[in-house]
Specification:
single chain; alpha/beta; FAD/NAD(P)-binding domain; 2 domains; nine-stranded antiparallel sheet; six-stranded parallel sheet; 11 helices; 24% strand
Length: 537
């Protein structure tokens, strides 16, 4: 059932069993997993079924770190969330998103990556990844390169025994999340969706060990409360920590922030167009369709990318990264701006002239076809990269978000060293030459993110190292959970969506197991009795 909260009279109270804040990818996945259960669910979303400027403006905020997208353009504040923004052209008038699980090494504590390690390894998530692929409609479930490549039509450049390897991305259509699944949720007997409902504060008991209600308001001016047995915040990697920091009546630093971790460890995937691969054989362009254009295999759109083997990552102590090959014609407009985007200051610098001479010597005629490298790298978890509160306030009187995105020299060095290893392999195999444009570990011009907001309520078994525990429950709060990429301890190189869905399915199983249980009051337990959804004036 859909309800527009703008129609509520002032001071209405809503009672339910599980309350989900956020109707994006995580919130929709969770609500759908809870359809037809013997308890009531209330899904709260700030927007309506279509975008509107006033609601989207609530996302406005400050960027005080590395250059980043304006915060009100980096997310979509209406039902369906940022799945409405999945934009990869899949053909047949369909838009979608890249999907791939994290690698096994991404879950491990790596001694060369500070603050790395998840509370469980990848095998624990394998079943949930399988279920996530069904939800995202990208089966068959395999990601093995040989199951998607073809020795004639789509031959892989690199096999499993090489230092450089081929990995496969699948693409999922956004339609199920913004049409099919929202319709299922809207029609479910045990789920109520409140639109145009903005949660202002998470209210707790006097010890801040249990959430008692959510205080909410609409842009129409009316306020109301929602009380539940269990609460799940699924508002994304920026708004989730913002809401926790705003909920500071009992814990003055913000709810769950007793160790100053809420909002810290903001991670993105480092996107950069840098590096020029000059093939030794022009026929290579016909043999690399796996890497440079979306193919439909087994009915699923896929593409191949290059990455380093796990053995090389361990030996070189590098962050994870993948590379897509983008065909381009050699010209000044293609090649020389790449130099500037890579941090080379000015046409008159000796460094720029040296790189330019190297390129012109290698590519001695105009119109030569080359590959530009589209790099997508992992970012080291960095406590100084963070979301905090701005002094500026939105129309609801709430402090806006302030983003201080920071990267480290290790992040950039890892990109450079990865390209050096790839370049040596290309030369050794006779495939061609790689011209590396990055020359130092400073953040280069042209570095940007992928709208992947991760890490700001990170998962850890130790409350001094993470905001949520292994079950995504906020440390010290008995009935408050987080769903979405903000719980990621590390970000790998894979787009976060498939892992978001897998973790949310896992959380849904955990919540379903809790609901039939008999509860008593305690810091680890929720004791609000199950109830049918009730709306009271």
């Amino acid at each position: 059932m859909l309800i527009d909260a703008s129609d509520f009279p002032d001071h209405k109270s809503v009672e339910t069993d599980i309350c989900i804040v956020g109707g994006g990818t995580a919130g929709i996945t969770l609500a759908r997993e809870l359809i037809a259960q013997d308890f009531q669910v209330c899904l709260i979303d700030s927007g309506g079924q279509m975008p509107d400027q006033a609601t989207q403006a609530l996302y406005q905020g400050e960027n005080i770190g590395l250059p980043y997208y304006p915060l009100d353009t980096a997310r979509a504040r209406y039902y369906g969330g940022s799945s409405n923004r999945w934009h990869v052209d899949l053909g047949d008038h369909r838009l979608g998103v890249r999907l791939r699980p994290f690698d096994a090494i991404d879950f491990e504590p790596r001694e060369w990556v500070g603050h790395s390690g998840w509370p469980f390894d990848k095998t624990h998530l394998d079943n949930y990844y399988d279920r996530a692929q069904i939800i995202c409609q990208i089966t068959p479930k395999t990601f093995e390169t040989e199951d998607w490549a073809d020795p004639v039509q789509r031959p892989p450049l690199a096999g499993n025994d090489n230092p450089v390897q081929t990995i496969i991305y699948k693409f999922g259509w956004r339609g199920p999340f913004i049409h099919e699944y929202t319709k299922e949720i809207n029609q479910a007997d045990n789920i109520t969706v409140l639109l145009h409902a903005n949660v202002l504060e998470i209210e707790t008991d006097e010890s801040a060990q249990k959430v008692t209600s959510l205080r909410a308001a609409t842009l129409a001016g009316n306020q109301f409360t929602v009380s539940a047995r269990l609460y799940v915040i699924a508002a994304g990697g920026i708004e989730t920590p913002r809401l926790l920091l705003l909920s500071n009546k009992v814990q003055t630093a913000g709810l769950g922030n007793q160790h100053d971790l809420v909002g810290r460890f903001f991670m993105e995937h480092l996107h950069l167009w840098s590096g020029i691969f000059v093939p030794s054989d022009p026929g290579l362009f016909q043999r690399t369709t796996l890497y440079n254009q979306i193919q439909k295999v087994h009915g699923i759109p896929i593409i191949g990318k290059l990455t380093l083997s796990e053995a090389v990552l361990r030996h070189e102590k590098l962050l994870n990264q993948n590379i897509q090959l983008i065909p381009r014609l050699h010209s000044r407009s293609i090649l020389y701006p790449q130099m500037l985007a890579s941090g080379v200051a000015g046409l008159a610098t000796n460094g720029y002239r040296k790189i330019r001479r190297k390129i012109e010597k290698t590519i001695n005629r105009k119109g030569t076809k080359v590959f530009i490298l589209a790099n997508m790298g992992e970012q080291t978890p960095n406590p100084n990269s963070r979301v905090c509160l701005s002094d500026d306030r939105d129309v609801l009187g709430q402090n806006r978000a302030c983003l201080d995105w920071q990267v480290t020299e290790q992040d950039i060095h890892s990109i450079i060293r990865t390209q050096e290893i790839v370049g040596a392999w290309l030369k050794q195999t006779g495939l061609g030459q790689l011209i590396i444009q990055l020359k130092d570990a400073r953040p280069p011009r042209g570095l940007h993110g992928g709208y992947h907001h991760m890490g700001t309520t990170r998962m850890h078994t130790n409350p001094k190292e993470g905001v949520v525990d292994a079950n995504s429950r906020i440390h010290g709060v008995s009935n408050l959970y987080i769903a979405g990429p903000s719980v990621f301890p590390t970000g790998g190189y894979a787009n976060p969506v498939l892992t978001i869905v897998a973790l949310t399915v896992r959380l849904a199983d955990h919540l379903k197991a809790l609901m039939p249980a008999s509860y008593s009051v305690g810091p680890q337990q929720a004791d609000v009795p199950a109830t049918k959804l009730a709306v009271n004036d």
